[in-house]
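Hi R.,

Here's the chain you asked about this morning:
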Amino acid sequence: MSAARTVATPLRTTLPAAAAPPDRWYVLGILTVVYALNIADRFSISTLIEPIRAELHLSDAGIAFLTGGALAVFYVTVGIPVAALADRANRRNILAVSLAAWSAMTALCGLAQNLMQLMLARFGVGIGEAGGTPPSTSILADKFPPARRPMALTAAERGGWRAAFLVLGIPGVVMALIVWLTVREPRRGQLDGDATPAARSTFPDTLRFIAAQRSAVHLLVGGSVATFWSWGLMWWTPAFLQRSHHLSVGQAGQLLGPMHLIAGTASTLLAGWLMAQRAAADPRYVTRLLGWATALTTVPSLLLYWVVSERAAVLLLWVFVPAVYFYIGPILGLLQNVVPAQMRATTCAILLFLANVANLLLAPQLIGWLSDWFASAFGAGTESLRWALLLLAPTGFWAAWHLWTSGRTIREDAARAS
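And the predicted structure, written out as tokens:
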């Protein structure tokens, strides 16, 4: 514990529920929009894989690096230093600057005329997005008390592929101004019931503390494998629909868009409602729910890449797409409770580092490489992508085991963190 914080006296006070900041729901709404822009700017390019690949004459492995790897190279390396800064400096300012940066770079993707320009713009998106989620989750942890954090952190073809980036990037610059002007920086750790300010922690301090928290380790690994499974599959799903079910770029987008908007939103709201129930005050309930939900939705993720019927695949997608949104908020909320206040942004960045290495570097590149291999070595043709996706889908069971297992020590670990 000495690595976590220095306490001058044993005196501890618990803030009443009424002491929660009055602007917490406004901040939650604003940061939910910011997070939605973060996800959209990062993953919207997956719908555009086929036209970009065709125009720039790339292999599956090549387009995988351009769309995923180019962003992840800086996203995962810049994320931890930015989060360490967010654990010490003004989080609102870091978030606003980062949002403006990644939104501007997303718009520049739409102006790219060649491979190098597009790659440099994706590098810029990655650098900007590294400063998005860590300060946001740390701010929300100081707006909502511990029992409410999993709930709060749950809430968030005609024009060609270039136009899509411009449409996504420009609103983000406006949102950056709104964040800067209307969101106030909260006092760090104000709802944790600790009467004394915590000492600042170094990155090695945070790593040592996390290593001693078994639940935190399982949540980090489980969350990373879950993103490898779910978003790794979703990254290539538009291209799969275009190749195996002969949809156009526009048709694939029109099919998946409502799924993400309607089913994804419904899943997020359902997770938020479940996290607000009395049973969710026990973190073991949350971990069991996450484990079961991930394991059960792994089954349709396997079947949808197996079936040859377009109608069956679409039906299975309506089950699978909500799953990719269900676990994100609860995992972030649980992690905020098993580390001290001065370690939260860095811990979030560690999760994002591992998760984005998994779903932006490893999963897209692995699937692209396997697809190329199946096509050349086995003559699989357009079905090569199907077989690559089928090999990735069972990893959801691995993620489910870690999420379930995190519940064994999570209450003790939360008490130690506070």
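Residues 64 and 365 are 5 Å apart (CA to CA).

Let me know if you need anything else.
M.
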